[in-house]
């Protein structure tokens, strides 16, 4: 039995890591193995987190018993039989790891494309809108390609179709493959401009595959307005967009992220909303373009996926300057970071975190 378990674990490890190689394999290999390897990678992510966690428990708990304060703490915890087993019984640790990995993986697999519409009202000081409020549908991080298929992209578009909005904002990372490979998967997005003016800014993944300009040309063909360091007026608000932080490494002339250029055509007295895929861009603006940053009323971002995996959240929250939700950057500038509309890589996402946000801007 032990031999069979060892063999199964080795095969599972190979499948979990093979996703990175299968991604670059030919279509036939991907058809056979991509979903299997990407699901294995997701399960592995959950599993290894608890394996590492219990490794730390087994390493530290005996040492903590050597000091009266920490010994007292562990003894209090150990009064609860369940926690006592997790502290001192290796078999209980293994059972718990397998069960919690299975539960999390199944729940996240089911919820990966359960798209939830969420609503938020944000107050803007002296909002220059020509009506009572302006309403945006905001999406990001669809990552079509890999393990995201046309039906899942369509589910995001269907959720937007149920809303009455003044504009639709796509905050980058729509694709994870070149145009000629996945244009059919992305095609539901081309219907969005029929509902409301639709605007797009690049994310880092737009620069990873082939010629990024091909995607921008496709969006333009279907009337999705690309705000590559540009702006447009919308109901009295200046809507601006910057190329992603990764654009500086793309080798494209005059394409680097440029906030100053993006808002150069905005009227001085207008409210300004900025689309910027990576919220870490703000750290760059604070150093290089602080004056321009203070002109922005609201920045809308994605990129972080809200961690995507429960076990990853503590690390991502600790590492990233802005993780998820609503932030006050200065007395003028606000930031809103969404968790993305679908997922990247393993087809798993935390329950309720595949999002379409409907955001109302009102005057403070």
TrEMBL record:
One example GO MF annotation: hydrolase activity
Record's keyword annotation contains Transmembrane: yes
Family annotation (InterPro entries): Calcineurin-like_PHP, Metallo-depent_PP-like, Metallophosphoesterase_sf
Every Calcineurin-like phosphoesterase domain range: 134-306
Transmembrane segments: 7-23, 43-61, 96-117
Keyword entries, A-Z: Membrane, Transmembrane, Transmembrane helix
Top-level taxon of the source organism: Eukaryota
UniProt-listed Pfam families: Metallophos
CDD domains: MPP_YkuE_C (cd07385)
Keyword Membrane carried by entry: yes
Name this polypeptide is given: Calcineurin-like phosphoesterase domain-containing protein
Organism: Caenorhabditis angaria
Lineage per the UniProt record: Eukaryota, Metazoa, Ecdysozoa, Nematoda, Chromadorea
């Amino acid at each position: 039995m032990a031999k069979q378990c060892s063999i199964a674990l080795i095969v599972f490890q190979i499948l979990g890591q093979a996703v990175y190689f299968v991604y670059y394999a030919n279509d036939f290999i991907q058809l056979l193995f991509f979903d299997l390897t990407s699901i294995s990678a997701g399960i592995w992510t959950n599993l290894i987190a608890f394996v590492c966690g219990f490794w730390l428990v087994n390493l530290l708990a005996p040492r903590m018993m050597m000091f009266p304060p920490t010994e007292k703490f562990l003894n209090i915890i150990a009064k609860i039989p369940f926690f006592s087993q997790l502290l001192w019984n290796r078999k209980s640790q293994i059972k718990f790891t397998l069960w919690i990995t299975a539960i999390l993986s199944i729940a996240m697999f089911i919820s990966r494309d359960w798209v939830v519409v969420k609503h938020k009202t944000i107050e803007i000081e002296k909002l220059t809108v020509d009506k009572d409020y302006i309403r945006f549908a905001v999406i990001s991080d669809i990552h079509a390609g890999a393990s995201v298929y046309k039906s899942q992209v369509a589910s995001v578009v269907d959720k937007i179709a149920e809303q009455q909005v003044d504009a639709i904002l796509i905050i980058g990372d729509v694709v994870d493959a070149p145009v000629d490979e996945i244009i059919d998967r992305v095609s539901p997005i081309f219907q969005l401009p029929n509902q409301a003016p639709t605007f797009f800014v690049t994310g880092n993944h737009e620069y990873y595959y082939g010629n990024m300009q091909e995607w921008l040309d496709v969006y333009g063909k279907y009337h999705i307005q690309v705000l590559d360091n540009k702006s447009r007026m919308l109901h009295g608000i200046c809507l601006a967009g910057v190329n992603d932080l990764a654009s500086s490494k793309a080798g494209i002339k005059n394409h680097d992220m440029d906030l100053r250029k993006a808002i150069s055509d905005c009227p001085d007295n207008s409210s300004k909303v900025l689309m910027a895929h990576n919220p870490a861009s703000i750290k760059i603006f604070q150093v290089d373009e602080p004056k321009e940053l203070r002109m922005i009323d609201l920045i809308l971002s994605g990129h972080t996926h809200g961690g995507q995996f429960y076990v990853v959240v503590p690390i991502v929250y600790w590492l990233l300057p802005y993780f998820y939700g609503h932030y006050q950057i200065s007395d003028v500038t606000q930031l809103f970071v969404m968790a993305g509309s679908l997922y990247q890589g393993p087809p798993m996402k935390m329950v309720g975190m595949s999002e379409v946000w409907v955001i109302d801007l009102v005057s403070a």
